[in-house]
Amino acid sequence: MAELTASGIVRAFLSVATLVSGVLGFLSRDLRWFAAAAAFGTMWTVGDVLVAKVLIPLADFAARLLEGGVDGPPVETRPTVEDTIRLLESHLAGGGPREVQIRAAIRLADLYRAAHHDSARARQVIDLIRERFPDAEELQLKM
After folding, report:
1. In whole angstroms, what is the distance from residue 49 CA to residue 81 CA?
2. How far apart are the first and last CA of the chain?
3. 20 by DSSP, 3-state: which?
4. pTM for this prediction
5. What H or E segment, with its residue span, contains residue 27?
6. What is the largest CA-CA distance in the chain?
7. Do the Cβ atoms of 92 and 125 come closer than 8 Å?
8. What's the chain's Rg over C-alpha atoms?
9. DSSP designation for 103
10. Following DSSP, what letter does each residue of 38-92 receive, concatenated?
11. Tens digit of pLDDT for each residue in 10-27?
12. What pLDDT band is residue 143 in, cutting at 50, 70 and 90?
């Protein structure tokens, strides 16, 4: 059985009223019943459009407002290659933990080779980290 909602009850009432008024208009040949059928049918259609195009989007907006996310449609938040390169370069310049610098250098060298086709720059990054950490086993296979 369908769930009873306020809009479902109103739609059912208007649809039955439209149908009954139309049938009574045909049976009695009275134009007032046809006018009533047209009025109920118009209210039914306008109500459906109002609910679908105005009330539901407004309720969705209000729900997002209460949840704290009213900025609009979602935007792409994935970093670009250039964003990643800047981040990895900042790891190397910032002098963070050894493991972070080594992994950042390896990934940065790979990006320089793959995205920029710049093997010389990739070699410079690896050489820089080799100078800082000559005993790093992770760099043994690189270049």
Report:
1. 45
2. 70
3. helix
4. 0.47
5. helix 6-28
6. 101
7. yes
8. 34
9. H
10. HHHHHHHHHHHHHIIIIIHHHHHHHHHHHHT--S-S----PPPHHHHHHHHHHHH
11. 888 999 999 999 999 999
12. low
Residue-wise pLDDT for 84-119, tens only, equals: 999 999 988 887 888 999 999 999 999 999 999 999
Planar angle of CA 15, 4, 52, nearest 5 degrees: 60
Identify the pLDDT of residue 136: 81
d(CA 21, CA 28): 10
Say how many C-beta atoms besides its own lie within 10 A of residue 127's C-beta.
15
CB burial of residue 47 (10 Å; 0-12, 13-18, 19+): middle
- pLDDT tens digits for 113-132? 999 999 999 999 999 988 98
